[in-house]
Specification:
By secondary structure, this protein is α+β, with helices and mostly antiparallel strands. The chain has five helices and eleven strands, in the order E-E-E-H-H-E-E-E-E-E-E-E-H-H-H-E.
Length: 227
Amino acid sequence: PAEKPKVPGLDVAVHYQTAKRAGGDYYDFFPLPDGKLGVLVADASGHGAPAAGLMAIALSIAHTLPDPPVRPAALLTHLNAHMTKRYTRQTGNFMTAFYAVFDPAAGTLSYASAGHNPPRLVRAADGSRVILNRAQSLPLGIKPDERYPEQVVPLHAGDRVVFFTDGVIEAVNAEGDVFGPDRLDATTDEPAASAEELLRAVLRGFNRFTEGVPVADDRTLVVVRRS
């Protein structure tokens, strides 16, 4: 997207870095009726131009729904059916994806996942962490009739959600150690008054860990905070 969405009650920050000139990570925002916001984060298999091509295809399909994508399962089912039928069965490529719908008025977050790394929901009240992993199905582009379940969780004032692709948690340092989900979780423990502040905290920890190591995979971070 050319700019971050402006939705009352939500604060958004983004970091996107490709490993090559063309990348296969994909994030998108869908302003929805009644003040809701859809957030899609996806990661195409492979690297470079082939992954970027699949990402572009997914972007086009995601915006062909006749109605706004209010239901997470419906968007992933739509993406999977079209990608499998026309694009991926011949190539063996696939794409992981996570789609979440924020409803600040109702104080809820609904989501569905196509084999993607589960985002972290960090509670403002006590700093506890919820791993959003209870609605997992196959990645997009593998099984044409795959169906995607949904989950709904409460979203309170100050709660923040951290979305990421595997280029973040699979990054290595100069000694060959992997950043991993535990180190990512540790960076989200820092108190933050805004989505941008939390994003910067995560990046500080990540950049210290990977200092001096070339980027080997696309990296995407999206932080959404209920303000």
